[in-house]
Design a protein that fits this description.
The complex is a heterodimer. Chain A is of the alpha/beta class. Helices cover about 35% and strands about 25% of the residues of chain A. Chain A has a domain at about 90-155. Chain A has helices at about 40-50, 75-80, 95-105, 110-125, 140-150, 170-185, 200-205, and strands at about 1-10, 15-25, 30-35, 55-60, 65, 80-85, 160, 190-195, 205-210, 215. In chain A, helix 3 crosses helix 4 (about 110-125) and helix 3 (about 95-105) runs parallel beside helix 5 (about 140-150). Chain A is globular. By secondary structure, chain B is α+β, with helices and mostly antiparallel strands. Chain B is built from ten helices and four strands; from the N terminus they run ααβαβααβαβαααα. Chain B is elongated. Classes of the chains: A alpha/beta, B alpha+beta. The structure holds adenosine-5'-triphosphate and magnesium ion (MG). The site of adenosine-5'-triphosphate has 11 residues of chain A, from helix 1.
Chain lengths: ~220, ~300
């Protein structure tokens, strides 16, 4: 469960990217964060995943107050999230399998178990046949799916994605949508920031609309 | 197997991979580190051998003790007594009559000695202490000078003292050299790691965002620095051994010319281990400094 009250984030330099946001996302929900470019979607996603710290207000995730979190607790909290970044942040110095293994290495999983689980995650997104490929050799849609495999490999309770269908054609976008729907179906909380309207038509998710940092609906 | 062990093993494996991944860079770094450690290590071994050489050559350290001219049998007996108590070594009494006879025996001296109205030579003792450390000799000399009817005490070890002073100077220079090259090693590692952190900034950034601890991110760099330093240390040990091997023949011949048999003492496994450990420590230090500085921008 994610609960925010009067959450604000002001970047150094002036404006409030998120302003007085109060909302609640229940466990197992699928929530869409929408809004114009610059509305604060990415900022809100970063606040929830503890990558940015709020300027004021409170944010409680799975019973833990993130605004009161100590420096050493942060890495462990982050491992509950599966993150798909707007710019994916794949590592091009290693193959697909090793990209997916990174969260498991961080968690200290034994290597053999890590390989097994990474392969399962790749299978889930339909990339097992490309496990040896360097991400640079994958198409845009495949790269996005690889990023999702890395996000889900450590079985997060909350899957957070920022514009996962951003620069994909409709068909690849739909394939991504279906993957997220699959995780939602097995009980994972899914939070997706996007301005892709096809999500709403297809899954009727809860929508959190942002306008200049404020939650408008 | 717990997560801690798994992560350390993974970090060590990652360090090895990084060394392998850029063989030319690795080789160059190792050569730089190896040479940086070779020079002081070689100096150390050389000084060590020189000290041995000095010890073996100074085996015939003597103190000559000359009595007053008017000293009698009783005074001589007193000195003998004291020598028996003080000098834990050999000593020999040379009566003035015997000294005069020896003088007469030497060529061209007979007539001069014959023309003397009386024996101008004093009774004397030749002392050979067991402890031939320059400091111990000096202390003994001072003590003997204070004994009754002793006119003059002569320490025949000036060159040993000079040699010792030279060794001490050499040791000081060696420490300075070692400090300098050690700092160089730290700097080399610092720079290598800095470049690595820069090259892996995306990985570091991603790892942090998905829950990597500080330790997880730093560990591979520490292992890399320590590993590189240790390998450099082993290389240095090999270089020193090789150099000494080449030198041992000529040194043996030189020693033979002076009638001595002197073999170079070669460093063994313990010395190599010390060099490797020293290299590892300095490499780790460089990595630690570098990572602490380089990772600041990720906070
Ligand atoms: N690191 C930052 N420093 C300063 N200002 C920032 C920073 N990141 C974002 N902003 C500003 O905060 C506001 C919200 O940005 P944000 O990236 O959250 O928007 P967004 O809704 O994700 O937009 P888009 O749809 O284009 O991705 C923008 O005005 C942006 O310029
Ligand atoms: Mg954005």
């Amino acid at each position: 469960m994610i609960e925010a009250s009067n959450l604000s984030k002001r970047y150094p330099g002036g404006l409030d990217a998120v302003k007085d946001a109060s909302f609640r996302i229940d466990a197992g929900q699928m929530v869409l964060i929408t809004g114009h470019s610059g509305a604060g979607k990415t900022t809100l996603v970063k606040l929830i995943s503890t990558i940015e710290r709020p300027t004021s207000g409170s944010l409680v995730v799975n019973g833990q107050n993130l605004s009161a979190l100590g420096r050493h607790a942060i890495p462990h909290v982050r491992r509950h999230f599966g993150l798909v970044f707007q710019d994916q942040k794949l590592l091009f110095d290693r193959n697909a399998l090793n990209n997916v293994m990174l969260p498991l290495e961080i968690a200290g999983q034994p290597r053999r178990e890590a390989i097994r689980r990474a392969q399962a995650a790749l299978d889930k997104v339909g990339l097992l046949a490309r496990e040896k490929a360097n991400p640079i050799a994958l198409s845009g849609g495949e790269q996005q799916r690889l990023a999702i495999a890395r996000a889900v490999v450590n079985r997060p309770t909350i899957l957070i994605a920022d514009e996962p269908t951003g620069n994909l054609d409709t068909e690849s976008g739909m394939a991504i949508l279906d993957i997220f729907a699959d995780f939602h179906r097995v009980g994972v909380t899914v939070v997706v920031a996007t301005h892709d309207q096809s999500w709403i038509e297809r899954y009727h998710p809860n929508v959190l609309r942002l306008d200049h940092g404020r939650v408008v609906s | 197997m717990n997560a801690w062990f798994i992560q350390h093993r993974a970090a060590l494996a990652a360090a090895f991979r990084r060394l392998w991944a850029t063989p030319l860079n690795t080789l160059l770094s190792l050569v730089v580190i190896g040479i940086a450690l070779t020079l002081p290590a070689f100096g150390y071994v050389a000084l060590d051998n020189l000290r041995d050489l000095g010890r073996s050559a100074s085996g015939v350290q003597q103190i000559s003790l000359f009595m007053n001219l008017e000293a009698g049998k009783k005074d001589v007996a007193e000195i003998e007594n004291r020598l028996r108590q003080a000098a834990n070594g050999k000593w020999k009494f040379v009566p003035k009559e015997e000294a005069l006879k020896r003088m007469q025996a030497s060529e061209g001296m007979a007539e001069i000695v014959a023309s003397l109205p009386r024996n101008p030579l004093p009774d004397a003792f030749i002392v050979e202490p067991t402890n031939t450390e320059p400091e111990a000799l000096e202390i003994l000399r001072k003590e003997i000078s204070g004994w009754p009817k002793v006119a003059h005490v002569q320490l025949d070890s000036a060159w040993v003292k000079r040699f010792d002073a030279f060794l001490r100077l050499g040791k000081l220079a060696l420490w300075m050299l070692a400090g300098l090259f050690g700092a160089g090693l730290v700097a080399v590692t610092f720079n290598t790691i800095r470049l690595q952190v820069m090259a892996q900034s995306v990985e570091i950034e991603v790892a942090r965002m998905i829950g990597a601890t500080d330790g997880f991110i730093r560990r591979p760099f520490y292992y890399f620095g320590a590993l590189q330093g240790a390998l450099g240390g082993l290389l240095a040990a090999g270089l020193v051994l090789g150099a000494l091997h080449l030198l041992s023949g000529p040194v043996g011949e030189l020693a033979a010319l002076y009638g001595g048999s002197f073999g170079l003492r070669l460093p063994g496994v313990p010395e190599a281990a010390v060099l490797a450990a020293l290299g590892a420590f300095l490499g780790w230090l460089g990595a630690q400094l570098s990572v602490s500085l380089s990772l600041r921008k990720f906070d």
